[in-house]
Amino acid sequence: MTLLEAIEARHSVRKYKDEPIPEEVLTTLRERIREINEEAGLHIQLVTGEPRAFSGPMAYGSFSGVKNYLVMAGKKADDLDEKIGYYGEQLVLLVQTLGLNSCWVGLSYRKIAGTYELSDGEKIGCYIAMGYGETQGKGHKVKGIKEISNASDATPKWFNKGVEAAILAPTAVNQQKFHLEYLGFRDFSKVPKVAAKPLFSMVGYSKIDLGIVKYHFEVGAGKENFEWA
């Protein structure tokens, strides 16, 4: 499965089978998490075989059977949420290519002592539930391409393909509070510029959403074709 195929196939899943994840799959995930933490300065942690975080009064939202999840943490900073979204979605799509399912989780979990570690100045941004889903999930209604970008017949094909991938990005309560804009050549750049902006949201999580959207756009457009403004 390619990343574009994973983007198209992947949907949020909240109910999971009581089926352990094979050790070779966990090894692949741990190695990628190690690489991301080193590259991005994050502190993402994989928790397996732990059922308490998604049970009890604080774990609402129709989740069941969740025993495996990612703790998305890092140093407090203005760009932490966007980094969590950008790199977390890389793991979400990797999970999909490995035959698993997943769900971004902002509130519907409990922080279980002893299942994660935080260094001074670090905080948890969200969790990502994962495992073998009872179903493959289902798609949701999305906005039109022109509602979330300035894509048109006049913009490059790679930009339009990036927007098509971005429109499938998971966002909090499917809010899609972002806008992508093709800017062309700016500031003597050798490649065109693209702007990605979060929009105001009553729900929140728009910066995490933006990170997810930017990664989807890069997969669809090809990172070699542009620079972020």
Q: Can you walk me through this structure?
A:
There is one protein chain. With 229 residues, this protein is of the alpha+beta class. The protein has two domains: 129 residues, NADH Oxidase; 84 residues, NADH Oxidase (3-Layer(aba) Sandwich). The chain is 32% helix and 18% strand. The protein has six helices and seven strands, in the order ααββαββααββαβ. β6, α6 and β7 form a beta-alpha-beta unit. The model has no long low-confidence stretch (mean pLDDT 95).
Name a few traits of the molecule.
4-stranded antiparallel sheet, NADH Oxidase, globular, 18% strand, 2 domains, 229 residues, 3-stranded mixed sheet, alpha+beta
Quote the beta fraction. Answer: 15-25%
Task: Please report the total strand number as a whole number.
Answer: 7
User: What strand order characterises the main sheet?
Assistant: 1-2-4-3
Under CATH at level 1, the class of the largest domain stands as Alpha Beta
Structural class: alpha+beta
Q: Give the integer mean of the pLDDT values.
A: 95
Summed up:
The protein is of the alpha+beta class and 229 residues long. It has 6 helices and 7 strands, in the order ααββαββααββαβ.
